[in-house]
Structure formats: structure tokens, C-alpha cells
Amino acid sequence: MEIPFNKTYFTGKELEYIENVLNTGHVSGDGVYTKKVKKILTSILNVENIFMTTSCTHAIEMAVMLADIKRGDEVILPSFTFPSTANAVILRGGTPVFAEIKVKDINMDMEDVFNKITRKTKAVIPTHYGGTGCDMDALSNMLHEEDIWTIEDAAQGFFSKYKDKPLGTLGNFGCYSFHGTKNYISGEGGGLIINGSDPEMIERAHIIHQKGTNRTKFINGKVDKYSWVGEGSSYAPSDILMAVLYAQIESAEHIRINRKKIHNLYSNAFNDYINKGILLSISNEPDNWQSNYHLFYMVFDDEYKKEKFIKVMGERGISVYTHYVPLHMSEMGMKLGYREKDLPKTSHVGRTLVRLPMYTSMSEEECLYVIENAVDILERF
Ligand SMILES: *Cc1c(COP(=O)(O)O)cnc(C)c1O
After folding, report:
1. Each residue's pLDDT tens digit, 299-352
2. Span from the CA of 377 to the centroid of ligand 1 (angstroms)
3. String of b and e for 138-165 (b: at least 16 CB within 10 Å)?
4. Position in ligand 1 atom list of the atom nearest CA 181
5. How many angstroms separate the alpha carbon of residue 69 from the centre of ligand 1?
6. Exposure check for the chain: N or C terminus, fewer CB within 10 A?
7. Is residue 55 lining ligand 1, measured as CB closer than 6 Å?
8. Which pLDDT belongs to residue 327?
9. For residue 132, how far is its CA from the centre of ligand 1 (angstroms)?
10. Could you read off the pLDDT of 272-286 as tens digits, one per residue?
11. pLDDT of 15-45, one tens digit each?
């Protein structure tokens, strides 16, 4: 049996919705399906302000602009994340400061964040790894009296919850990805949540989103012509992409439940190897939180076992992958002055984490085949 790492899932409604968009003739941003998506999202997430974007990268860039990050400002984020999280800061002239993760859940270690706060810290960007939330209570208690923004990188976290609140709605800003590799997809795409109801902030967001113009005011009939009023870029996705996303969001619960089945089979099969000391951690879902089961990871106790595991699984037709090169160990991280030893836990995870095949349409038979082979290899260590 050949088991791919990922398979794109479509609900079957996408073509019909794309056709609807083509029939309207309005294929640029802010069309019928953008409105439908915004409406369903504000209801699911119980938020007032969501901006659909061309990617999560762009949502994070917008948030960093809105937080007014400038040269000399520091922004704390995990090293174990996608380069976009740090690039958004660099593009505004700010300095990314990398914090450690916890090996237990691969999420940011809030104690390390605390140690890294200085007078220059202007924002913290927690990345919710694999669809499981960071410890947001600890973070908000810590930032309670500080003038520091929280920007959630919830790229992998759409339709997950921390306690009873959706990821992406806990900070000042929340950023989602609907990239083709995520659970809920438009191809390329993202969303930005802005919490709170500061009208000035919302107006600035509209201007940034609309290429530096007051086009939103024009659409709403408040001015009779729109023109250049400030800084901005082109962040609105085509309505064709929002048609795809609408189909996916309608099936959000179905997608989550299918992935949960796979997650639970994996989880039951591999938990024992933590007690045996071969694995340091595996994906888990904390009690009373809700994961979207974006991925399933295992962290080995050493790099040799990880290499061997990937190789033998590959020989048996099963694609398993590592994940990020931690940002502090990357070529760019080195240029920023970081060294591998600066963040030992992150460095270890970067070298020993693997992700198992995980996709919405995965059958129980495929999943059991992965488990059977993985257990066979683990038993020989
Ligand atoms: C996928 C991902 C991004 C980038 O999302 P795009 O929509 O591709 O720009 C950023 N951060 C994290 C943690 C991601 O997983």
C-alpha cells in the first residue's frame, strides 16, 4: 500500500460555487462569496471583525502593521514556526526574538517568553502548533498590565478551541491560513481577526487591506470617489477562492470529525512508547480543549531513531516528514546572530520530530497500515 503524506480534500460543492461566482462576473475581491464567508465566520467564531486575505502570511503582515511595529521594536515568537511569522516583523524593521517551545506540546514556553520581555517588546506572536492552542491564559496573565500586543498565528488553528474560545479570537489579532496544505482550504488564502471595537483601528485595517485607499468607504456609499489615503497593500482574495472556502467551511465539522478518528487511532497506538522512553511526546488534545487535528507528530529521544524511522517507513511506501528547520537554526537565523545552543529544546525538536500521514479522506485501513508498520519499527528500538 502507498500512503501519501497529505491528500487534498474537496467537499464536492466547490465547482458549483465557483460557477456561481463566474456567473456573477465579479471575480475580484469583495464579491458575493467573500461576503458569505465573512458572515459564516463571524457567526462560527463569534467575532465582529474579520478580513479575508490572500494568505496567512499577509494576515500576519497586516496585524504587525496595525500594531505599529517599527525599527527597534522587539517581537517575541517561537523559533519553531514558519518563516512568515518572523518575516512580517522583519519587513517592518522590527527584531524577532525567539522563545523556546515545550517538548510536551511543541507550543511556546510562556516562562521563556516572560524572561525575554524587555522595555522594547511590542508584541508576542504565539503559534498554535498542529491545531492545539498555546497556554493563552498564562500569556494574557503575563501581559495583563503591559502595553504589548498579542497576535495569534493560528495558521493551523482554524476551528480549534482553547477552553471554550476559538483559536484566533483570544489575542488582539488572530491570523488563519486556508493554504492548500491546511485543513480548510481555498488554495491560497487567509483571514485576520481584529478583536475589540476601536473604530480607528478598523478603519486603518480597511485602508491597509484596500491598497492604501478608502475604497471601503466608497463601497459603503460614504464617499463618491476613492483615492490614496495611507499605507497599504493588496490583501483581498479573489471571490473564486472564497467560493472554494465557503464549501469547506460548510463542511468544517465533518472534516474535523474525520481527522479526529485518525488522530485517536494514532494516539492510542503510540502513547505507550512515551512510557518506554523511545518517544518524548506525541500529538495530544488537552482535556476540554478542541483540536482540529491538523497534524500528528511524534518526537523521538534521538536523531538516529528519527532518521531510521523515516527511512524504513519510506521503504514501505509510507511518506513521513520532519517539520520546520527552527528559525534560529536557519540561514537567516544565523545572520540574526542566533546559534543552535541558544534554544536547546527547540533544536532537539527540530532534529527529532516527524509527522505521520494525515488527511481528511484517510481510511481506517490506511491508518492501521501506518500504525502496523510504525509499531514494527518502534518495537525494534
Ligand atoms: C502555513 C503557515 C503559515 C503561512 O500560511 P500561508 O497562508 O501559506 O501564508 C504561517 N504560519 C504557520 C504556523 C503556518 O503553519
Report:
1. 999 999 999 999 999 999 999 999 999 999 999 999 999 999 999 999 999 999
2. 32
3. ebeebbeeeebbbbbbbbbbbbbbbeee
4. 1
5. 20
6. N
7. yes
8. 98
9. 15
10. 999 999 999 999 998
11. 999 999 999 999 999 999 999 999 999 999 9
